[in-house]
Design goal:
CATH topology of the largest domain: Aminopeptidase
CATH superfamily of the largest domain: Gcn5-related N-acetyltransferase (GNAT)
Order of helices and strands: HHEEEEEHHEHHEEEHEEHH
Mean pLDDT: 87
Helix content: 25-40%
Number of domains: 2
Low-confidence stretches: 1-10
Shape: globular
Structural class: alpha+beta
Largest sheet: 8 strands, mixed
CATH class of the largest domain: Alpha Beta
Number of strands: 11
Length: about 325
């Protein structure tokens, strides 16, 4: 069908295919893009479609995966030549996935009859603190800095801002691309918060914010976005403490799963029970590949330079103007 929004009111889309998520991406980054069910190599997902039927999948400012939708929700999907990060399989954690597929670990809470069973069955990889070690560090943190105060959902704008600042510092400290140095990317996080999609989780010790997370709750699914902590108290591993407390809160809230999102970082495998597997479908058209390579090289050359920041600020202002114009209609 030409417009998939007609069925969206009665359809619970996957987290990154929902109207709320796609509307935010469109409004912040790509005014004029359309929400569509698209098809590549016989697999259908819902995402944004821009000029020349380019489907939004591997989205650099905010990586996400695309989960398949049932065929009956799009009788005539838009055919696209390529899709990145499409979920094609789900297995138990130790079972192999499709050859060449990327892994996205998650915890399925129905596997555990109690929180204590979850802790007992969690096994850390070498170099990663075990849950028992994190529990001991939790007690030490409280003895040293004061009473712990954990909030699964902390509505304070100051907390949200601090967590983003800590993440930006982490990007720079570890030599990665500081995505949060771009105002438009910051706008995206704040807009997701304003629309009730992103929320902050906080951990305080003696009244002092020591760690936190930003997550995306979609139905009964807790999607972990980022975890950061105050480096001045890093010896207490407050990030690991906040992570374990968030897992417990997710379990006690009756969530179906705790989703770590794509990536093979070692800490994800301590608790995960299952994995989704993502692949690239189709082949990138030559003009699109040339455009992507050129933009990537320009971005790399200008990264952290004034010209690049000016360019991204211009893009941000254009998107903001488009939102204002649409709001007046």
């Amino acid at each position: 069908m030409g417009n998939n929004s007609a069925v969206s009111a009665s359809r619970v889309w996957p987290a990154f295919s929902s109207d709320e998520f796609l509307d935010t991406v469109r409004d912040v980054y790509m005014h004029g893009a359309r929400k569509r069910v698209v098809e590549c190599e016989g697999i259908r997902v819902r995402t944004l479609v821009g000029a020349r039927n380019r489907a939004v999948s591997r989205f650099f400012p905010f990586p996400f995966m695309l989960e398949q939708v049932e065929p009956e929700f799009a009788a005539t999907p838009v055919a696209v030549p390529m899709l990145y990060d499409v979920v094609v399989a789900e297995t138990r954690l130790r079972e192999p996935g499709p050859p060449g597929a990327g892994i996205s670990p998650f915890v399925r809470w129905s596997e555990f009859a109690s929180w204590e069973e979850f802790l007992q069955r969690s096994v850390s990889l070498p170099g990663i603190d075990s849950p028992q070690t994190v529990v001991r560090k939790t007690r030490r943190l409280e003895r040293t800095l004061g009473t712990l105060d954990f909030q699964l959902v902390d509505d304070s704008a100051d907390v949200f801002e601090t967590l983003l600042r800590w993440k930006s510092d982490q990007y720079r400290r570890t030599g990665g691309v500081d995505r949060l140095s771009i105002r438009q990317n910051l706008d995206f996080y704040w807009e997701m918060r304003r629309r009730g999609l992103f929320s902050a989780t906080s951990l305080r010790a003696g009244g002092r914010l020591v760690a936190g997370k930003i997550g995306y709750r979609a139905g009964r699914r807790h999607i972990a976005r980022l975890t950061v902590y105050d480096r001045d108290v890093g010896e207490f591993s407050p990030g690991a403490v906040a992570e374990l407390m968030t897992l417990k809160a997710s379990y006690e809230a009756g969530d179906d799963e705790f989703d770590y999102q794509p990536g093979s970082q070692a800490y994800k495998f301590t608790h995960a029970t299952h994995a989704r597997w993502t692949v690239t479908l189709g082949k990138e058209p030559f003009p699109a590949r040339v455009d992507r390579v050129v933009r990537a090289r320009i971005g790399k050359a200008l990264r952290n330079r004034k010209a690049y920041i000016v360019y991204k600020e211009a893009v941000r202002r254009t998107a903001a103007h488009a939102r204002t114009v649409r709001g007046r209609r």
